[in-house]
Automatic annotation (TrEMBL):
Keyword field: Glycosyltransferase, Membrane, Transferase, Transmembrane, Transmembrane helix
Protein name per Swiss-Prot or TrEMBL: Glycosyltransferase family 2 protein
Glycosyltransferase 2-like domain span: 27-192
Signal sequence residues: none
Intracellular or extracellular location(s): Membrane
Length: 381
C-alpha cells in the first residue's frame, strides 16, 4: 500500500515508483461491501491503463464483508493502490469527493466498484480531460451507441424519468448526467467544492449543476454491465436524495437576490407573528403583552430558520453554530426593534404624521436586521 515512498517489491512497475505522487490519473473507486469485486476491478484497470501513470484509490465506508482486507492484499507491494477508509460515514458522493481530494493527480476519474462500468473507455476519458478538450469526460449509457444493458423496464423508466427531470436544472444538455463513470480535472472539482452539496448518490450531477459557468462536457458511449457479485445499494433513499438535490438547484437558480429574499421571509414572519398573537389570545386567554412577547419570539425564530435555509443557504449554520446564530439573531433583531421604535418616535415628534413615522421606523429596523445579520449571524467564514 502506498506510503509515499518507493517500495522495492517484485511486482511494482518501475514507472509508478519514480516519484511519490507522480501520477497523471487517479481512479477513484467507491466501495461498500464489494469484497468479491475489487480484484476484478484492479485487474481490469491494470489492463486498460497500460502506458498511463495512474493510481487506484478506493474509498471504502467501513464495509463489513472484508472489502478493505481484500484491497490491502491487492495493494501489498504496490505504491499505486491506496484505500481511504471512512468510519461511521456513508454516502457515495461524499466518498468520491474525499477520494478526489486525497490525491495529487491532475486528472481524477470515478468508476463503480462492482464492475458495471467499462474500464476500457478510461484511457479516452482521461485523454479528453488531460489534453484540455473537455472539463469533464463522461461515460454515457444514453448517448448514441450507449446502452443500459440488461435493466428491467421499471429501472429503465425510473432512470429515464430522473434524467429528464435533471434537464430542468442542467445548463447544457448532457445525455447521462447521472453517470457514475467520468473523468474530470482535479482543480475543477476543488474550485467547485464550496458549492457542492456532497449529498446522495450523484456526484456528477452535483458537479454539473454547481458550476457557475457551464462545464465543457464530452460524452462517450459504453454499455452498462450487469452486476455479477455483491448487492446494489440503490434504494428509496437515493430517490429522495435526488429529489432534494433537484429542489435545491431550482431554488439556487431562481432565488431572488438576498435582500429580496430576506424581505419575503420577513413578510411571512409577520404572518406568523399575527397568527401566534391571535391564537394565544383567542385559545389560551393570554394577555396582550404575554401573547405579543410570545409572537415576537416565535416570529424571530421562524425568520431565523427560513433565512438560514433560503436567504443565507450558502452560509447555512448547523449544530451548535445554529444555536449561537439564533441567539445572535435574537439580539440583533432586539436592537433592530429599538432602532425601529426610536426612529418612529423621533420622526413623529417632528412631523406628527403617524404612518410616515411608522413606515420609516420599520424600514430602518429591517435594513438593520438584514445588514447586521449578514455581517454577524451569517458572516462569511
Ligand atoms: N464508499 C461508498 N461507496 C458506495 C456507497 N454506496 C454505494 N457505493 C459504491 O458505489 C458504487 C455504485 O453503487 P451501486 O449500488 O452499484 O449503484 P448502481 O450501480 O447505480 O446500482 P446497481 O446497478 O444496482 O449496481 C459501488 O461501487 C458501490 O459499492 C457508500 O455509501 N459509500
Ligand atoms: Mg452498480
Amino acid at each position: 500500500m502506498s506510503i509515499g515512498v518507493a517500495v522495492p517489491a517484485k511486482n511494482v512497475r518501475p514507472i509508478m515508483v519514480a516519484k511519490a505522487g507522480g501520477f497523471d490519473l487517479a481512479v477513484i473507486v467507491p466501495t461498500f461491501n464489494e469484497a468479491d469485486n475489487v480484484a476484478k476491478i484492479v485487474a481490469g484497470l491494470d489492463a486498460a491503463l497500460a502506458g498511463i501513470r495512474y493510481e487506484i484509490l478506493f474509498v471504502d465506508d467501513w464495509s463489513q464483508d472484508g472489502t478493505a482486507e481484500r484491497i490491502a492484499a491487492l495493494a501489498s507491494g504496490r505504491a499505486d493502490i491506496r484505500v481511504v477508509r471512512r468510519f461511521g460515514r456513508r454516502g457515495l458522493s461524499s466518498a468520491v469527493i474525499e477520494g478526489m481530494m486525497a490525491t495529487m493527480a491532475p486528472v481524477v476519474a470515478v468508476i463503480d466498484g462492482d464492475g458495471q462500468h467499462d474500464e476500457r473507455l478510461l484511457p479516452r476519458l482521461f485523454a479528453l480531460v488531460n489534453g484540455g478538450a473537455a472539463d469533464v469526460a463522461i461515460g454515457s449509457r444514453y448517448c448514441e451507441n450507449g446502452s443500459t444493458g440488461d435493466w428491467d423496464s421499471f429501472r429503465l423508466k425510473c432512470s429515464r424519468a430522473a434524467t429528464k427531470l435533471s434537464q430542468l436544472v442542467l445548463q447544457a444538455p448532457v445525455t447521462d448526467p447521472m453517470s457514475g463513470f467520468f473523468a474530470v480535472r482535479r482543480t475543477k472539482v476543488e474550485a467547485l467544492l464550496p458549492r457542492l452539496s456532497g449529498r446522495g448518490f450523484k456526484i456528477l450531477f452535483d458537479l454539473l449543476t454547481s458550476s457557475p459557468q457551464p462545464l465543457r462536457v464530452v460524452e462517450l458511449p459504453f454499455r452498462f454491465r450487469t452486476r455479477v457479485a455483491g448487492d446494489s445499494k440503490l434504494g428509496a433513499g437515493v430517490a429522495i436524495d435526488y429529489a432534494v438535490t433537484i429542489a435545491d438547484r431550482l431554488i439556487r437558480r431562481f432565488a431572488p437576490p438576498r435582500p429580496v429574499m430576506f424581505a419575503a421571509v420577513g413578510t411571512l414572519g409577520l404572518g406568523v407573528h399575527v397568527a401566534v398573537l391571535r391564537g394565544m389570545m383567542a385559545f389560551d386567554g393570554a394577555s396582550f403583552a404575554r401573547a405579543q412577547i410570545m409572537a415576537v419570539l416565535v416570529a424571530i425564530a421562524f425568520n431565523f430558520l427560513f433565512n438560514n435555509s433560503l436567504t443565507f443557504r450558502d452560509r447555512r449554520l448547523t449544530g451548535l453554530r445554529m444555536v449561537a446564530g439564533l441567539a445572535s439573531f435574537y439580539l440583533l433583531c432586539g436592537i433592530g426593534a429599538l432602532a425601529n421604535v426610536g426612529t418612529g418616535v423621533v420622526l413623529f415628534s417632528e412631523h406628527h404624521r403617524w404612518w410616515v413615522s411608522g413606515v420609516a421606523g420599520a424600514v430602518i429596523g429591517s435594513v438593520w436586521n438584514f445588514g447586521a445579520s449578514a455581517l454577524v449571524t451569517w458572516r462569511k467564514r
